[in-house]
Amino acid sequence: MLKNCSIKIESGCFFKCEMCYFWKRKKGSNIYVKDFDKIFRSLAKINPNMQVSLYGGEPLMRQDIFEIIQLATNQGLKSNICTNGFLLNKKVVKKLSEAGLYDMYISLDGYKKETHDKIRGQIGSYDKIINAFEIINGIKNSFYVSPTFVILKQNIKELIDFVVWAEKYRFTKEISLQVLEQPLNTPLIEYWYRDKRYSHLWPDDIILIKTIFQKLINLKKKGKLSKLKQTTNQLKGYEKYYLFPEVFVKKQNECNVQNEYLNIYDDGDVKMCNKMEPLGNVLNDDLYELWYSFEANKIRNKMKLCKTNCMQVLTTAYKE
């Protein structure tokens, strides 16, 4: 059953992150409020307990973000947003809470603020995020908040300090670690981590990788990282991915995303996997009919044969 639909609601971003090139795109989206009402009604029809993830670019750049979240809430859907946190202030947080936002994932890619600010290309962003945590905690009946950390060569040495700090930090619901993929908004290429344009991001110290992940796994086994979303087996998969990125990490040797996850892009295209062809377009097609279509089943069968390590298989839709 479809459990989660990720919707890219904004193409632009004002950060210049080292592992994401959305800042090169123009601000905007082809999906408007009237379209979201139709989308959320269809999703609720497929599964009334659906989770909806709103992302970008930077989703808070949309002035109608509160109305979009309210529309999801009206259909009984749980919405979350993935944000860099820079635009959060007391007024914004309160309006998000009033609209019914369930959860927020804020990117925090360093234990040291200098590391985070450099990776994110925005001086002062670390302090903004910490202040946002304080604001969210101070508003009664607010949404949950979780820091996310993308593991790069530039920050892997700070990973243990980060999760230990976030575990003790009173405002966090959970901690989510994400594997590094080819930088967003770049043409997909094979063995991208060897490419001179991106190889500087890939951790290449084998001993360091093994040491860091073994420490993480041991802390998790001892119950000292209860907020860490990733399981010990998943962390072992992360380690394997960074050591041998060409080897498919899943033991059952099959992608499990095809029946549970859906992606809608800012041009309206609907994909079950970003490496597969579009299933249709929400601006022209009925999402309910697309999900149960013959074409959808064809794509599902193709996905079963896929042996590519991707964010969904490793992180978002991971299964033991």
Order of helices and strands: EHEHEHEHHEHEHHEEEHHH
Number of distinct beta strands: 9
- The tally of helices reads 11
Characterize the largest beta sheet: strand count, sense, and whether it forms a barrel. Answer: 9 strands, mixed
C-alpha termini separation: 18 Å
| pLDDT averaged over residues | 92
Strand order of the largest sheet: 6-5-4-3-2-1-7-8-9
**By helix and strand content, what is the structural category?**
alpha/beta
Return residue spans where pLDDT drops below 50 for at least 5 consecutive residues.
none
Question: Helicity range of the residues?
Answer: 25-40%
Taking all Cα atoms into account, the compactness measure Rg is 19 Å
Shape: globular
Percent of residues in β-strands:
5-15%
Keywords:
alpha/beta; globular; 12% strand; 11 helices; single chain; 320 residues; 9-stranded mixed β-sheet
